[in-house]
Amino acid sequence: MAGMSGNTTLYSSAIQYVIFLVTTGIMLPRIDRIGRRLLLLSGSAICMALHFAIAGLMATDGHFVPDVNGNSNLRWEIHGASAKGVIACSYIFVGVYGLTWAPTGWIYSSEIFPLKYRAKGVGISAATNWIFNFALAYFVAPAFHNIEWKTYIIFGVFCTVMTVHVFFTYPETARRSLEEIDILFDTDVKPWRSAQVKDIFAEEIERHAKNSISGDKEVTATHKEEV
């Protein structure tokens, strides 16, 4: 679609895999310091912008063709500076995804489930990921064939929904114990304020201790009255 053919297509695919591998490796040791929410929010927001940018470039400067290099599923072609822009956006997308959602999504899904259900929860997460990857492989070709560049608008809308969903429902779990994370989901702390809450577990223990002491005092007072 961006005017590449033959070995150029193979080279471009190899480059994107190298970018993905390098960016994911760079981010893995830094996730705890940066935080889960920042990575997930920034990743989905940037990916959203990139999808809409690709759609805009292809809609503005692309044109309909019967097929691209013999592939009848691809019926939209773009050349020149706009084609380079599409390629650049695609590479940036791979890099951003490798820095954000690729490593963080797996870590986050392994943290948020209660211990009793963690193994099953992570298993369902992994299965869901691969099921949707499988479905996406079957969706993309017909989508490019029927709606051409508008496919990227669909991807952009999904990223928009993903950004909103993370902002309102994903609390910060970085540098917290699994016990703290369980308590975090039981509290009324808003996800967008969760990063500022410190020592949740210690505060919860102290609260339970105070409630226990108050309960003991009430029992003692009742006992004295009865005596």
Detailed description of the structure:
With 227 residues, this protein is mainly α. It has a single domain, classed as Up-down Bundle (Growth Hormone, Chain: A), CATH 1.20.1250. It is built from 9 helices and 2 strands; from the N terminus they run H-H-H-E-E-H-H-H-H-H-H. The N and C termini lie far apart (89 Å). The model has no long low-confidence stretch (mean pLDDT 86). One of its GO terms (cellular component) is membrane. Belongs to the major facilitator superfamily. Sugar transporter (TC 2.A.1.1) family. It is a multi-pass membrane protein. InterPro entries: MFS_dom (IPR020846), MFS_sugar_transport-like (IPR005828), MFS_Sugar_Transporters (IPR050360), MFS_trans_sf (IPR036259), Sugar/inositol_transpt (IPR003663).
What are the defining features of this structure?
227 residues; Growth Hormone, Chain: A; two-stranded antiparallel sheet; 9 helices
